[in-house]
Amino acid sequence: MKITEQIQQKTEWCDQIIRRYLPEETGYAKGLAEAMNYSILAGGKRLRPMLMAETCRMFCGRTEPAEPFMMAIECMHTASLVHDDLPAIDNDTYRRGKRTTHSVYGESTGILAGDALLNYAFEVAAKGLTETEDPVRYGQALLCLSKAGGIGGMLGGQYVDVIMTGKPLDEDLISYIFRYKTGAFLSCSMEVGAIMGGASEAERQDMREAGEKLGVAFQIQDDILDIVGTQEELGKPIGSDIRNEKTTYVSLFGMEQAEKASVQLTKEAVALVRKISPEETFLPDLFTYLTKRRK
Length: 295
Hints:
By secondary structure, the protein is an all-alpha fold. It has one domain: Orthogonal Bundle (Farnesyl Diphosphate Synthase), CATH 1.10.600. The protein is 72% helix and 1% strand.
């Protein structure tokens, strides 16, 4: 089976898991729940829950231990996109081929929906803590998730990205932004999958590093696609980095170097997976596909 077909199957499966956890659209806050669910169900590759599930499967042959965290990481990622699209930051009106949350429900509800999704992530994850047979391991995964979304993770990277818009960046700064804004959730996904799959501390570290490398490669490819992609392929307007006066990996190092860096980082991430599981095929194939993707 082609990797694109495997990804499609696994995306659909992740969607089924996510739908189990959606908040009910009832009561006085029904409109907020609707905005949350609209944001979650707007589509996307479900890359983070997919990485988490497949990493967990690689270690223990099952995905069930990671499933609450699959919903949690998707809520956190979606919250970051909802806020990223707001007029105060990127002011985008399309995401994944659909109207962004704030452009459908209004700016104030967009802000609240992002906040609610972030909080709901921890509600779902914390509920699983009351049901697990291994609270210590579960607590380690919950701590990893918490750090990934905070000042030492995605929000730290997002903050630097926002305040440095229109200002020159050097290699250290752009690496920091990529590692945390994008890489934090990808490395968290793989580390949480490893934790819930019973990995050792050394194996956890390898999966965390693989996710970090994949995150930087993924963001470099995003920078490339913002120049060479199309709105039909990406599901959002292209050229937003130039419009928002952002320094990107491409503008800093050039297209050729950006493509080489993306490929090299992907190879290093693949090597870390194969170091632990030489027979694993899906994750290495997924990493390579993401480096070459057009959307």
